[in-house]
Amino acid sequence: MTTETAVPQDRLKLSEKLGYGVGDMGFNFYWANISAFLLIFYTDVFGISAAAAGTMMLITKIIDAFTDPMMGAIADRTKTRMGKFRPYLLWLALPLAGAGVLTYSTPDLGPGGKLVWAYCTYSLLMLTYTAINIPYSALSGVMTRNSQDRTTLVSFRFIGGFTGGILVTYLTPKLVVLLGQGDETLGWQLTMAVFGIAAALLFLFTFASTKERIQPVSENNSAVLQDLKDLKNNKPWLVLFSLALIIMITITMRASSGTYYFKYYVMRPELVGEFLSSYMFALALGAASTPLMTKFMDKKPLMMLLMSLAGLFSISLFFVPADQIGLIFAINLAIGFVLGPKSPLAFSMYADTADYNEWRTGRRATAMTFSAATFSQKLGGAIASAVIGWLLALIGYVANAEQSAGSQMGILLMVSVIPGLVALLAAFVMRFYHLDEKQLLTIQQELDQRKAAPFVKNEAVGVSE
Q1: Fold of the 19-213 domain
Q2: CATH, range 222-445
Q3: Which key words tag this protein in UniProt (predicted)?
Q4: CATH 1.20.1250.20, the chain: domain bounds
Q5: What pTM value is reported for the model?
Q6: Would you put residue 10 in left (φ > 0), alpha (ψ -120 to 50) or beta?
Q7: For a FRET experiment, which of 42, 88, 248, 272 has its CA 20 to 30 Å from that of 218?
Q8: Tens digit of pLDDT for each residue in 84-140?
Q9: How far apart, in whole angstroms, are the C-alpha atoms of residue 377 and residue 395?
């Protein structure tokens, strides 16, 4: 049993917040590419059908149903002189870069061979991503116990993440042309190599500039099944798991369908990069505003308000004519701004639920707790991609051709009404989250009291659900 303590009054230095934040910039060199471009890469460049691509992206997430909690358990039980979570940023940076290049490569194979290649390489990419991203996410839960500092830290994370998204969405179409020199398949491959090297350097910087401070009341010697059982009984965690899945459906559906929207509905494909990158900028601005927002409103009502606004703004896009470019961009920026705070809010609440779990059970499974965020996000993204692929097939979408009126209407619905309704559902789900700031402060004070008396038996304290 450790005698180390974490002092809630300790505040993180700006350099450490920046160091942690740039790590998510590296992750978004992959995630933003997957969300915005992978589906259209598969349909318009790689050469498989929209339905097959969507189904593949969903089926591979079945693997993640096992690997995410498995990786959380492994990370929680990792013991090195460098910490539990930081070492993975060193060990897996280059393997992740290699998997990214393979996923965006187009081998000279038949339709069946290409589909097998897509399944294998995308699964490898997601497995490697999981193995490095879950420890990175859990790192924020052991850097500080101060609730406001956690919100600020995670805000820095998503500012970095959205900045990475801005770079990816703006630069990717241009890099594909520049590096490919007329060969689009080579352009995609080299573009992912550039992003992979850049991400590896950012992961190294995060490793060097961060520190793990919070130690559990006792070492985690419980079985993995016990960790999963603890999470199943952790109601705030269950709400966040559902919330992250629902919100990611909204975000991915808007990002993925946005490329089709501008190419086939607005008929201005040259504006795709600006449309998506300006949206990412608005997301980053919203994320940066989160600490200010939480000073005036608790996390739960703030999340409900923001998701309601995101839903209404998204639905309003349905009524905007295709030639009203300025208004389309304005609504898109508004959606990005109100969606931006959802990520720092949700991830700071994941750290809060790790405290809650330790208080209830005497066991702290930080990485297992954060694995829910990664898994639910990936599952939500996969569901959105699959739905888009299936709907494109249903409405008669034909790659690189003029679309029918029905196909155009389907694309419009996928970028406006459908994700808008999903966002409103997220606002409703948030009603069931009960862990407020007052209760959290009491929990953290009791945890610190237990750590201050390490030789006194720690008995888990139940709470009213």
Answers
A1: Growth Hormone; Chain: A; (1.20.1250)
A2: 1.20.1250.20
A3: Membrane, Transmembrane, Transmembrane helix
A4: 19-213, 222-445
A5: 0.73
A6: beta
A7: 88
A8: 999 999 999 999 999 999 999 999 998 899 999 999 999 999 999 999 999 998 898
A9: 27
